[in-house]
C-alpha cells in the first residue's frame, strides 16, 4: 500500500486485504523495488497468494455497492437483472462481481453464494 499519510486503521485493513507493506510518500525507490521483488518471489515460490493463505477477507472490505450486488447475486439474479434493479450497466455488475469474488476468495458463483449465505 502506498499513501500520502497512512493511518493505523488503513494500514491494518490493507494488510488484511493482502498488502505486503505500507509505504508513505515520498517513497524510496530502492525500498519499493525490494518490496516488489519480495512480492514476485512469494508469487513464484509455489505458495498460494496471501489472500488465499489468510482466508477470505472480512465482510467490511466490501463497498456498500459491492454488498448490494452480493445480496442480489445470492438471491440468484442474473447480471442483467441486478443492473436493471440498481440502475447500472451489466458490465458494471460484472466488475463488481469480479472484485467481490477476489476479495472473498471465491472461485465461482457457487462459492460466492455459499460465502454470502454463511456470513
Automatic annotation (TrEMBL):
What span is annotated as the signal peptide, if there is one? none
Q: Which GO terms describe its molecular function?
A: DNA binding
- Extract the Gene3D superfamilies matched here: 3.40.50.2300, Winged helix-like DNA-binding domain superfamily/Winged helix DNA-binding domain (1.10.10.10)
Keywords in alphabetical order: DNA-binding, Transcription, Transcription regulation
* Source species of the chain: Devosia oryzisoli
Show the CDD domains listed in the entry: LuxR_C_like
Response regulatory domain: from which residue to which, for each copy?
1-40
- Give GO BP annotations, semicolon-separated: phosphorelay signal transduction system; regulation of DNA-templated transcription
Which segments constitute the HTH luxR-type domain?
55-119
What Pfam families has UniProt attached to this entry? GerE (PF00196)
For the keyword Transcription, the answer is: yes
Spell out the protein name for this chain: Uncharacterized protein
Amino acid at each position: 500500500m502506498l499513501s500520502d499519510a497512512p493511518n493505523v486503521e488503513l494500514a491494518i485493513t490493507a494488510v488484511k486485504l493482502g498488502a505486503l507493506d505500507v509505504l508513505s510518500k515520498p517513497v524510496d525507490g530502492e525500498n519499493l523495488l525490494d518490496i516488489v521483488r519480495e512480492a514476485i518471489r512469494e508469487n513464484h515460490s509455489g505458495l498460494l497468494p496471501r489472500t488465499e493463505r489468510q482466508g477470505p477477507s472480512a465482510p467490511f472490505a466490501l463497498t456498500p455497492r459491492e454488498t448490494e450486488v452480493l445480496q442480489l447475486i445470492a438471491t440468484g439474479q442474473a447480471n442483467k437483472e441486478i443492473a436493471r434493479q440498481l440502475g447500472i450497466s451489466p458490465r458494471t455488475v460484472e466488475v463488481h462481481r469480479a472484485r467481490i469474488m477476489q476479495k472473498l476468495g471465491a472461485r465461482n458463483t457457487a462459492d460466492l453464494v455459499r460465502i454470502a449465505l454463511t456470513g
